[in-house]
């Protein structure tokens, strides 16, 4: 049972919750048109605020796990995500929607942290790397499927699109029946009791900061690309969902080929992945039709879901003696980076008033990160 295909599918099914955070990103222009008195940056938080609470969940997950175990953490997270993910269907108040989205994000964070620990516990060596890559691939597939469903539901209303989070209940059942009881899942505590030199903590935090900046820039694209397409008068009301689907498709392809890419690129992987993201921003900057915008979104999704598992795996291997702490640090910075994206957009507005120019700036920043990644390697 331990390494069975069923177990792998059950663990990877969690991605249908964790990878669906941005499934309703295409709602932003429609919600903005409906809620005219609400600032755009506040509406954009509907997409990103789950990442903040996901980060908080990651911080507390180890303590919760010590009390109830990792399987029950996933079950709790899936239940929370299913309930609070769908509640906005009946809500009109933006503050209540944000509160529901925050609690939904907390549930996703519980699942995310536990899922990585389960992968690290159950699998070793190449199989672990494969599962980390498959996690990205499953996340891309889940993101594609949920974005597609949300887009179809958006044709009914932006409220209806939140029904996509009913997947939370499906994940609950998969984990309940096909993941072993918590009694058989124990993580080593020896590494957690070790004393690590300050220089090692600095390196780990540095990797976390790199993750933070990388994810922030990528999330700016996810949040802002529907608005950019609208400003350029590209596509119709469904263009936002279409672009999110293209991002998800890129993520799916990247995850499916992550292991192969790393065998070929090795340490050059990170700079190459950053340059792919830069190309996505650059193409969005010059695009004047739907096809080019879709290709730009695909490239961003590909680069995004290639550098994220790279950084996660680098942390788990390079800082293996830290145990779950290394994974926690990366996930916290990852969640914070996703949450801060609307405010990063506001900061970019200080340098360029045009959203199109802001995309160019993000592309240049990714090139700078690629250079930094080259020297770090």
* CATH topology value: Growth Hormone, Chain: A
SSE series: HHHHHHHHHHHHHHHH
Rg calculated over all Cα atoms: 19 Å
Helix percentage range: over 70%
What's the CATH C level? Mainly Alpha
- How many individual domains? 1
How much strand? under 5%
Shape: globular
Overall residue-averaged pLDDT value: 84
Low-confidence residue ranges: 183-193
Count of runs of 4 or more consecutive helical residues? 16
The description of the largest β-sheet is: none
Strand element count: 0
Reconstruct the topology from this structure:
Layout: H1 5-12, H2 15-18, H3 28-34, H4 40-68, H5 70-86, H6 94-122, H7 125-154, H8 167-178, H9 198-231, H10 239-256, H11 258-265, H12 269-286, H13 290-318, H14 324-339, H15 341-348, H16 355-376
Helix pairs in contact: 1-8, 4-5, 4-6, 4-14, 4-15, 5-6, 5-8, 6-14, 7-10, 7-13, 9-10, 9-12, 9-13, 9-14, 9-15, 9-16, 10-13, 12-13, 12-16, 13-14
Notes on the structure:
The protein is mainly α and about 375 residues long. The chain has one domain (about 5-375): Growth Hormone, Chain: A (Up-down Bundle). Helices cover about 75% and strands about 0% of the residues. The model is unreliable at about 185-195 (pLDDT under 50).
Compact overview of the structure:
The protein is mostly helical.
Name the descriptors.
377 residues
